[in-house]
Design brief:
This protein is of the alpha+beta class. It is 38% helix and 20% strand. The longest helix has 21 residues. InterPro entries: IS701-like_DDE_dom, RNaseH-like_sf.
Length: 487
């Protein structure tokens, strides 16, 4: 029997009923308060260094009755291992009987993500301001996280961008639109530091959220524009005079996003579909009556231009920290998506394998366009690390604001770790003397940076109280050997 062709429409979420009610009824707990329960005031192993300063600034933006809990949660997340649920964060942070207050704090963080981002942006501005002649580079992309259960708010079926051998084209969970700042490290190449993320909710789920929250449907393009306006306004308020360059993949190359960005004064660099609708330059005659033409009469076929074997030029550009050679064609065209002229670059990866990119600034060089496009891949590396290392999406919270808080906390911890270790050399970040088979010139990973910070936290907590004694060296040596296994 012939197999039925799979439908391109997303499947519907199916769940079984909840088996038993929760054993922690909040109303019953409030009716019978326990005066002897232990309250958590500080983390069992507190933060240190620049991270402690930045997290303290973030906690000051919350209500003082709950703000002191933010450093405790982040310290616990730094030390947590295994499956990184919110409960594992609380356990490693030393949370006692008032654990319910920490879950409530997550909801407050989710509602105030924009204000909590400010200390991070201020620190980046003071450290990396490119000046009036420079530019800030931002990357926009979305990433889904798998969730389980029928009572996870705002979760539904989404497209799976990276299906594995055992995965399908769709997954059940949340989808996040993320904004990251792309910075170039002098030693370790390009890095994407996440600043803020928004939760994309499908239109079929809006009515469910409206019953509890004031939630309106917004497309991914609208969410991306809101994120960019928040960061643009913050940097301008801080006094930055640098230009803005925004890079994203072809899925975001839409009029609803590109034209507002151009109106904000930003330059957009993105990939084009092979069948994109482009026109040549308009031929406006001098003295011609009427409004001058904005688009040319002749449509440009990218496939035909790439198919011609003449006109290709060689170029060497920096692709993810490595000098790469390639062949390109470039020309200026007009696009209705942009509303004017664009610089088009056709890059040939192999014979017959090519891709098209555009910049809304026609004067932008080909090398700068290709380097910006290659730098966009750093946000994909961030998505990998924030899920594999920080366990984004594994926190097992069901409230929509708690889910937003956990995802943004994972992204902020990624940025905090990278900024803490920015000025350190490879020798200071990782010691491979116990791994002779490892490549000594390999770039330190994000795990190496996080491990160094957790070791410093443990050292400052357990060795500061060690008094001078004849066997102090032996004790320190034993402790360092223990850290090698624990962190």
């Amino acid at each position: 029997m012939a197999k039925r062709k799979r439908s391109g429409r997303p499947p519907q979420a199916q769940h079984s009923r909840k088996s038993t009610p929760s054993q922690h009824d909040k109303r019953r707990r409030l009716d019978t308060p326990n005066p002897s329960r232990r309250r958590t005031k500080t983390a069992s192993i507190p933060l240190s260094g620049t991270i402690a300063t930045l997290v303290a600034s973030m906690s000051d933006l919350l209500d003082k009755r709950i703000g002191f809990r933010l450093p405790i949660v982040i310290a616990g997340a730094m030390l947590a291992g295994g499956r990184r649920t919110a409960a594992s964060w609380f356990r490693c942070g030393g949370v006692n009987d008032d654990w319910d207050r920490f879950y409530e704090m997550l909801q407050s963080i989710g509602r105030n993500t924009v204000s909590l981002m400010l200390p991070l942006v201020m620190f980046i501005f003071k450290k990396f301001d490119p000046g009036e002649n420079g530019h800030w580079t931002f990357a926009i992309d979305d990433s889904p996280t798998k969730r389980f259960g029928p009572y996870v708010e705002a979760a539904n079926i989404h497209h799976n961008p990276t299906p594995g051998p055992g995965d399908g084209d769709w997954l059940y969970g949340h989808n996040w639109v993320c904004l990251a700042m792309v910075l170039s490290h002098p030693l370790f190449g390009v890095m994407a530091l996440p600043l803020l993320s928004r939760l994309y909710v499908r239109q079929v789920d809006i009515n469910k959220l409206k019953q509890r929250y004031d939630w309106d449907f917004r497309t991914k393009h609208q969410l991306a524009m809101e994120l960019l306006r928040q960061v643009f306004g913050t940097l301008r308020a801080l006094g930055s005079k640098a230009r803005f360059i925004v890079v994203f993949d072809g899925a975001y190359a839409a009029r609803d996003l590109v034209r507002p960005l151009i109106a904000e004064g930003a330059t957009v660099v993105t990939r084009l579909r092979r069948d994109a609708k482009l026109f040549d330059l308009p031929a406006n005659k001098p003295g011609q009556r009427g409004r001058p033409r904005k688009y040319g009469k002749n449509r440009i076929s990218l496939a035909k231009r790439a198919g011609r074997r003449d006109g290709w030029k060689a170029i060497t550009y920096c692709c993810r920290g490595v000098q790469t050679e390639g062949r390109y064609k470039t020309f200026v065209a007009t696009s209705k998506v942009v509303g004017g002229q664009v610089r088009v670059v056709l890059l040939e990866h192999a014979s017959g394998n090519w891709a098209a990119y555009i910049s809304t600034d026609p004067t932008m060089s080909v090398e700068a366009i290709l380097q910006t496009v290659s730098d966009r891949w750093s946000i994909e590396e961030h998505f990998h690390d924030v899920k594999e290392i920080w366990g984004a999406g594994e926190q097992q919270v069901r409230n929509v604001w708690s889910s937003i808080a956990c995802w943004n906390l994972c992204g902020w911890m990624y940025s905090l770790v990278e900024l803490e270790c920015w000025d350190l050399s490879a020798e200071q970040l990782v010691d491979r003397s116990d791994r002779p088979w490892d490549n000594p010139s390999r770039r330190p990973s994000h795990t190496d940076r996080r491990r160094r910070i957790t070791r410093e936290m443990l050292r400052s907590e357990f060795l500061n109280d060690l008094h001078l004694a004849p066997d102090e060296t032996k004790i320190r040596d034993r402790f360092e050997r223990l850290l090698a296994f624990a962190a």
